[in-house]
Amino acid sequence: MAKTDKQQKISKVLAQMREGKSLRQSAESAGVARQTFLDWVDKDEELAGQYAHARAAMIDKIADDIMTIADEDLIPTGEGKVDSAMVQKQRLRVDTRKWLLSKMAPKKYGDKLELSGDEQAPVSIQRIERVIIKE
Asked: Which listed residue, 59, 75, 82, 103, has the most CB atoms within 10 A of its CB?
């Protein structure tokens, strides 16, 4: 049984997302509007699960890309020095992906600040006091 046009588009979008492309890029490549695809996801529980898995794979691919970018050797100029503009570009590429990951998957990739004690004596704040010191 041949896949319908809609099924082919869905398969293409999900496959491209698993490879690390964004939903917008994947939908555009498959010839479907991003919002149309999201409407299909909203109406189909099975597709919603497949989309969640594809999105998780896309997020992990972004994390892998960070390591690849960070590990890239920078090509020295003719004088044997590393171009500072290239260093800044690499830093921007890494920082942009890190920021994106922290928003897309905050539990996994976000900054964590956890204050806790043991179960019998959890940390609690009793009093916060502001002291002004004149110099």
From this structure: 59
- Torsion of the alpha carbons at 59, 65, 71 and 75, rounded to the nearest 10: -150
How far is Cα 83 from Cα 5, in angstroms, rounded to an integer?
49
- pLDDT per residue as tens digits for the range 9-18: 999 999 999 9
Give, in order, the Cα–Cα distances in Å from 132 to each of 23, 128, 129, 135. Answer: 52, 13, 10, 10
Please give the model's pTM, rounded to 2 decimal places: 0.71
CA distances from 30 to 1, 15, 51, 78 (A): 21, 10, 15, 44
> Do residues 20 and 61 touch, judged by C-beta distance below 8 A?
yes
